[in-house]
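hey
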């Protein structure tokens, strides 16, 4: 873990509820699955976000407005400086797959972008299954299409296939050996119950973000584990939902 001061390159809306924040500076030695914690003025606890893209000293996160902190983040301006804890958590294990399937639910699609980049760097073009509530929530579609074969599903059928990621997985014949998923807990639970050969990136309410407070513990078959330290990526067959 490192505490760094990063400069804001841009902070722009991707749709009504989703923003992309690009930061620059410092030494960004991170991989897909890991996350950062951002300090916001007037908020005691830092906010955790997965890295959506890492390129040299640039770090991109994609965030959804859900409460006061993320609402405040939309006011962040170019050239602002942010205190960021970097290099938090573990990474996805790319060695598990020769034919990867990346499954994102809503804002959980964000960390899969860096994962797709890393598979491409290995010469592997993944299949990418993205689920959103509706067309208005879709983001990064063209960018994902450059990195993999993309299937999009929306709950209301307003874009792509009608359904959710799990229903699409059950009905479509998708050729994969290991999946990598991030999204709502209900989606991850349903995925793990359907097929346990996958890796899940979990979320939990966090306080410290680096293993000191135990506040983010979840139950696994191997005992309690901290999402911020032993996770956020866990084997699908390990998590006790
Ligand atoms: C490892 C990890 C990676 C994440 N990656 C992303 C990402 O890439 N993009 C994104 O939009 N969101 C991500 N989240 C969720 C994000 O941290 C919350 O949406 C955000 O903290 C909400 O802050 P708020 O002040 O707007 O909401 P509020 O509900 O007002 O927050 C109150 C408190 O609860 C915490 N909290 C609220 N929701 C969550 C949540 N889902 N997970 C953890 N803590 C939460 C906040 O950090 C804060 O301390 C991630 C969470 C974790 C744990
Ligand atoms: S948030 Fe403190 S141990 Fe995970």
């Amino acid at each position: 873990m490192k505490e760094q001061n990063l400069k804001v390159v841009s902070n722009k809306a991707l749709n009504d509820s989703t923003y992309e924040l690009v930061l620059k500076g410092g030494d960004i030695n991170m991989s897909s699955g890991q996350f950062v914690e951002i300090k916001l003025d007037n908020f005691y606890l830092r906010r955790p976000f997965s890295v959506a893209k890492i390129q040299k000293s640039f770090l991109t996160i994609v965030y959804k407005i859900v409460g006061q902190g993320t609402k405040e983040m939309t006011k962040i301006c170019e050239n602002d400086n942010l205190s960021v804890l970097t290099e938090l958590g573990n990474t996805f294990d790319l060695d598990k797959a020769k034919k990867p399937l990346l499954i994102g639910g809503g804002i959980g699609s964000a960390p899969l972008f860096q994962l797709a980049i890393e598979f491409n760097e290995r010469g592997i073009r993944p299949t990418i299954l993205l689920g959103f509530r509706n067309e208005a929530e879709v983001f990064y579609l063209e960018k994902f299409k450059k990195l993999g074969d993309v299937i999009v599903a929306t709950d209301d059928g307003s874009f792509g296939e009608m359904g959710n990621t799990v229903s699409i997985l059950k009905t479509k014949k998708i050729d994969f050996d290991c999946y990598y998923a991030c999204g709502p807990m209900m989606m991850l639970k349903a995925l793990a119950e359907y097929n346990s050969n996958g890796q899940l990136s979990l979320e939990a309410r966090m306080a410290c973000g680096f293993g000191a407070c135990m506040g983010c513990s979840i139950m696994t078959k191997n005992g309690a584990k901290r999402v911020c330290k032993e996770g956020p990526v866990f084997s699908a067959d390990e998590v006790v939902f």
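The mean pLDDT is 97. The chain has two domains: 2-88, 94-201.
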